[in-house]
Design brief:
The protein has 496 residues and is α/β, with parallel strands linked by helices. Helices cover 36% and strands 16% of the residues. The protein contains 16 helices and 14 strands. The chain has helices at 12-26, 32-57, 85-101, 123-129, 134-150, 172-185, 204-210, 232-242, 268-271, 289-293, 333-341, 392-396, 421-426, 433-438, 444-457, 463-477; strands spanning 63-67, 162-167, 192-196, 215-219, 247-251, 255-257, 275-283, 308-318, 347-348, 354-357, 364-370, 380-384, 480-483, 489-495. It has a 7-stranded mixed β-sheet with strand order 4-3-2-5-8-7-9, sandwiched between helices. Helix 6 (172-185) links the parallel strand 2 (162-167) and strand 3 (192-196). Helix 6 packs across helix 15 (444-457) and helix 15 (444-457) runs antiparallel to helix 16 (463-477). The longest helix is centred in the N-terminal third of the chain and has 26 residues, at 32-57.
């Protein structure tokens, strides 16, 4: 049975109205009260008869629910405003001059790794990990004070409103398509800015498609000299800074929301502090000299040793309230250190993150981070897929290694060594349904709906990729793909 077709059923309101009229004609002689009693009696009889027939006939016939794909509905989401490029660039250059005039010393530190990444390093390893002379530490401490004192005042005319910022570009754009798709699938109505480094990393055709969903693409190179950005993490802080939004939810490109995050901005956890951060797996491994340099202690200290580190695949930040937080020019724990150095409040989500595993294996997919609006119980909101990155081409592309746009050396479907190869080959779930029910979510069907849009109706559309995507959805989740009488594509699922 379908909810649409050449001969659609009359609306339920018409059926009810016609039934009441016929009943009144049948029982015309009785009083209104008698008619009501008789009507209720008939309702009970019909109800009992329905369940009797259902018992003898077995399970009810599934109802096929068909919907226009989320991406193709009119979202009515207002696009972000375009910031004043000249004023924003001038503000950045002013800040850059302050940073350049008060550098730390030494400018570069030799990068060393601990012996093990799975075990917390012993105290002596932390103490000897970073070597800075007392003279350099004092010099850096004094310059840190100067920077925080000379930072320009918050430019009230530059930023406004709330929105989501996603950093994409290169292969990360493919990951961002799925995160963006999930935002709309789960009902987010916030405008979105997708930032890339420069024109070479921008997919103009894809960006043009996004406008109808309240999404704009922006280039960092339009606002600053991107040659100054030597490390990838510097792109993150730059995108947050140049965003037109005053209050920002930042998401890494490989972050897949599994619950609507819009309510974060009105939650007490955010309105009380202006910053929401999420925990990482490990305790802090910062050098004992760090608290001294940023003014948290009068000398080398072990005070950070028991602190929980931050995982910044998602970050909520109010620029007006925490403008000087830009003293933390980096990623992850630099945000926390900056806030603590400036004695500014923030909210660290108290719920321990959970690892999501591939169905039937001990291989991880990513980190499930909690909903910060629920302070008493763990409910997942973000899947930071830092291990298995969701990319439809990375999953199902065939012979795509030499393509000019977004080449894929070898897809998971082509690679027998991939931990998700058997799931794609045999059309089975990547997430354990039992695990999903235990935490009261089931995001995988919606993720594949985002995949289907990319493969079948977007800049990346490809007939073979679209067919493989739909086949997996049909055999794994029971989806069906149909066109209505107007030729409009619909995604259908059975429900009892």
């Amino acid at each position: 049975m379908s909810i649409y077709g050449d001969d659609p059923d009359p609306p339920p309101s018409h059926l009810l109205r016609n039934t009441i009229r016929r009943f009144r004609r049948l029982h015309k002689g009785g009083s209104p009260r008698q008619q009501l009693v008789i009507l209720l009696g008939w309702v009970l009889i019909v109800f009992a008869a329905f369940h009797t027939f259902r018992y003898f006939l077995g399970p009810s016939t599934p109802l096929l629910i068909c919907q226009i794909p989320t991406h193709e509905r009119n979202q009515h989401i207002q696009l972000p405003k375009t910031p004043d490029k000249g004023l924003l660039s001038h503000t950045w250059k002013t800040l850059q001059a302050i940073y350049d005039a008060h550098p730390p010393r030494p400018l570069d530190l030799a990068l060393k790794t601990f012996d093990s990444i799975s075990e917390y390093p012993p105290l002596d390893a932390i103490q000897t990990h970073t070597t800075i002379s007392s003279e350099d530490a004092q010099f850096s401490r004094q310059n840190h004070v100067q920077v925080t004192q000379k930072l320009v005042s918050y430019p009230t005319e530059l930023f406004a409103g709330q929105g989501i910022v996603i950093l994409a570009g290169g292969r990360y754009t493919a990951f961002a398509t799925i995160g963006l798709g999930m935002l709309r699938e789960i009902g987010s109505k916030l405008p979105v800015e997708v930032w890339v480094k420069d024109q070479d990393e921008e997919q103009a055709e894809w960006c043009a498609e996004l406008a109808q969903e309240g999404v704009v693409c922006r280039r960092l190179s339009n606002y600053m000299d991107t040659k100054l950005l030597e490390h990838g993490y510097q792109l993150k802080i730059s995108a947050i800074f140049f965003s037109s939004f005053e209050q920002i939810l930042f998401l890494d490109a490989d972050n897949v929301p599994v619950r609507n995050p819009d309510s974060i901005f009105t939650s007490k956890t955010f309105t009380d502090t202006g910053v929401v951060m999420w925990p990482d797996y490990w305790k802090h491994t910062g050098a004992p000299i760090l608290p001294y340099i940023v003014g948290l202690s009068d000398g080398p200290s072990e005070m950070l040793r028991e602190d929980q580190t931050a995982e910044s695949g998602q970050l909520v930040w109010d620029k007006r309230r925490h403008w000087k937080g830009w003293a933390g020019w980096g990623d992850k724990d630099t945000f926390l250190i900056a806030l603590r150095s400036l004695r500014q409040d923030y909210y660290m989500v108290p719920h321990e993150l959970k690892t999501l595993f591939i169905n039937g294996t001990n291989d991880g997919v990513g980190m499930l981070q909690a909903d910060p609006t629920n302070t008493t119980a763990y409910e997942p909101m973000f899947l930071h897929s830092n291990i298995i990155k969701w990319s439809i081409r990375g999953f199902l592309c065939i012979d795509c290694a030499h393509e000019a746009v977004d080449p894929v050396p070898v897809s998971a479907l082509e690679n027998p060594e991939s931990p998700i190869h058997p799931h794609l080959r045999d059309h089975s779930r990547i997430f354990s349904l039992k695990h999903m029910k235990a935490i009261n979510i089931d995001p995988e069907p919606s993720i594949w709906k985002s995949f289907e849009h990319v493969a079948c109706r977007s800049f990346w559309q490809d007939e073979g990729l679209c067919n493989r995507t739909r086949q997996h959805m049909e055999q794994t989740f029971g989806f069906q793909f149909r066109k209505d009488v107007d030729g409009q594509e619909r995604i259908c699922q059975e429900t009892t």
